[in-house]
Amino acid sequence: MTKHRFFTGFAPAKPLATALVLLLALPLTGVQAQGLKPSGASSLRLPSASASPAPTGQASGQQSADFIVVVVNSEPITNNEVRTKLMRTELQFKQQGLAIPPRSELVPQLLERMILDKAQLQAAQASGLKVDDSAVDAAVLSIASQNQINLDELRRRLKADGIDYQQFRAELRDELLVTRLRQREVESKASVSEQEIDQYLRDQQSGASASANMLNLGEILLPLPENATPEQLAAQQAKAQKVLERARAGGDFAALAAEFSASKSRGEGGQMGLRSAERYPPLFVEATKNLRAGELAGPVRSGAGLHILKVLEKKQGGVPDAVVTQTHARHILLRLRPKFTEAAAVEKLAAFKKRIEAGQADFAALARENSQDGSAKQGGDLGWAAPGMFVPEFEATMNALGPNQISEPLVSRFGVHLLQVLERREAPLSEREQRETVRELLRGKKQNEAYALWAQELRGRAYVELRELPQ
Asked: Residue 367 contacts by C-beta under 8 Å, 6 or more apart in sequence?
C-alpha cells in the first residue's frame, strides 16, 4: 500500500452524473476523536465550471414516445431513463477527453449496470432501511464542501450538466440507501483476526508472498452474465482476443479501455492504481505474477466477465504505510439545534473567518469561547492526525487546505465546522498503527470480495425481462 496522499483538488474532475455511482454513504458506526472518526472515506469531484451542457433537448423530445425497455422484479427501466444515462455517460467521456465507445457496445453495458443498480436498490428498499432528508442534505453539502463551492454553485454546475437538482437529490438518496444496505450486509461482516495480521506481516518480512509486491494494473473488462450461454462466451472471447491483439500491437491501452471496458476504472484509462497485491483479486495477481511492467495477460475469466490486464508498475513493498503524512489542525464546531439552524451556524462561522483573516480575532480564543466539542479547551486543537482519523467530509476539506489556510464553513453529520490546518509532517507508524493499517487493508480486500459475491447473487435472483431494445 502506498503512502497516503491528500486531496488537493487538482485531480481530473468527474461529472456529477457519474459521481453519484462512486459516492459512499456516510458511515453509521460510532465515532472517536472529537466525534470525527469514520469507518470509511470518499472524495467526490465536480465538473469544471466550463463543462458543456448535456444535450437534454433530445431526451425531452422523446418523452411522448417513451416505452419500457426492461423489467426488473416488476419495476421498469424506460427508454428515456436509458437515454438520459447514456447522454450523461457520453458527457463524462467527452469531458475527460476520451473516445466515446460505439453505442452498440456502450448501451448493453450501460443497461446491465442499470439492472444491477435497480436490483440493489430494490433490496435496500425491502430491507426497511431509511435515508431521511437531513442525511441527503449533509451528503449534498459534503460534495459542495469537498469541491470548495457553495450550494448555489453546486446547483449551477448541475444545471450546466443538464441535471435537475431534485433528481440529483433523489439519485443521491438511492445511493445512500444502497450503501447503507451494503454496509450492513457486507462490510460489517468482514472481520480480520490477529493471526491473519501476523501471517501478512511474516509474508511481508520474508518476501515469500506475492502480497509483498506493489502492483498497478490496467484492466479492460468485457462483461458476461452469470449464466452466460456458450454462444455469449464465444462471442466475448473472440472480442477479447481482438482487443488483446490490438494492445499487443502497440495500441493505446487507455484508449482501448475507454472504448471497450465495462469496468469502473475505464474513466481512468483502465488504471486500477498502485496498491498492495493483497488488494487485487487473487486471479489478477496469479495472472500477472511472472510479468514485467508493460506486459499483458488475458483474457482472464471471472464472475464479472473477461479481463485483459496490463502491468503498469510492479515493485517490492514492505510493511504498508510505514510512513504517513500527518496533519495538525484545529476547528470550531457549532452543533445544530431546533432554534439554531444550519444556515445560522454557517453565517456565524463565516463571520468568524472574516474576523480572523482581518486580524480582529484569534482562532484559538474563538474556539475556546464557542466550540461545542472536547477540543474547545485546547483552542480547538485536534492534535496530529493520521489519514483516516476523521469522517470523510471533514478530512476531504482538511486535505484540500494548505498550512495556515482556513476553510469555508463545513457541514458534517456533527454540525458545522470552521477548520484550519496548522502544519503537516511525515511520521513513521508505531507497531500498533502498522497492525491497524494491515487490518484495514485485509478488511478492505475481504469487503471487496464479499461485495462482488453479494452483487452477483442479487443479480442472479432478480427476474429480468427484456421488453424492447432501447432507442
From this structure: 330, 331, 332, 375, 376, 379, 380
DSSP letter assigned to residue 391? -
- Picking from 439, 451, 459, 444, the residue whose alpha carbon sits closest to that of residue 179 is 451
On whether the CB atoms of residues 421 and 329 are closer than 8 A, the answer is yes
Residue type, 422: L
Under 8 Å between Cβ of 118 and 139: no
CA nearest neighbour of 332 among 370, 378, 374, 362? 370
> Does 16-185 carry CATH code 3.10.450.700?
no
Fold of 323-428: Chitinase A; domain 3 (3.10.50)
All cell numbers assigned to 363: 482562532
Q: Measured between alpha carbons, how far is 308 from 306 in angstroms, rounded to an integer?
A: 7
For the chain, the structural domain boundaries read 16-185, 204-320, 323-428
Q: How is residue 42 written as a grid cell? A: 470518499
| Residue 369 confidence class, pLDDT cut points 50, 70, 90 | very high
Backbone angles phi, psi at 49, to 5 degrees: -65, -20
Query: d(Cα 276, Cα 281) in Å, to the nearest integer?
Result: 11
Tens of pLDDT along 390-423? 877 788 888 888 889 999 888 877 888 999 999 9
Planar angle of CA 365, 368, 374, nearest 5 degrees: 145
Rounded to whole angstroms, the Cα distance separating 168 from 17 reads: 8
In sequence order, what are the beta bridge partners of 417? 333, 410
State pLDDT tens for residues 217-264: 889 988 887 677 888 888 888 998 998 988 888 888 888 888 888 877
Do the domains spanning 204-320 and 323-428 agree at the CATH topology level?
A: yes
> 204-320 has which CATH code?
3.10.50.40
